[in-house]
Amino acid sequence: MGATETLRNDHKHIKRLDKIIAKCSSDIYAGKAIPFSDLDKITFLTSEFLDSIHYSREEDAYFPCVASYDHLKKEIRALL
């Protein structure tokens, strides 16, 4: 699997996690009980996967690769 495909797959999982977080938030505001173990897992995924793995993939592999594309330079610099 190439770097681009890996990042696309990451983004698919991140979007899924976002839906789970939104559902948990809605349930909490509705007064429903959310198992703390679920919140621990979400926190772990956010800190370990997003911060430690996914963002470094973008910064180390993807952004430098596409930086050579002149029409994307301004957009890439804005993200860094």
Keywords:
mainly alpha; 3 helices; 80 residues; single chain
Description:
It is a single chain. The protein is mainly alpha-helical and 80 residues long. It has one domain (3-79). 81% of the residues lie in helices and 0% in strands. It has helices at residues 3-29, 36-66, 73-79. Helix 1 runs antiparallel to helix 2.
- Give, in order, the helices and strands: HHH
The share of residues in extended strands comes to under 5%
Q: What is the typical, i.e. mean, pLDDT? A: 78
Can you tell me the overall shape?
elongated
Percent of residues in helical segments? over 70%
Low-confidence parts, pLDDT < 50 over ≥5 residues? none
Short characterization:
It contains 3 helices and no strands.
How is the secondary structure organized here?
Layout lengths: L2 H27 L6 H31 L6 H7 L1
Helix pairs in contact: 1-2
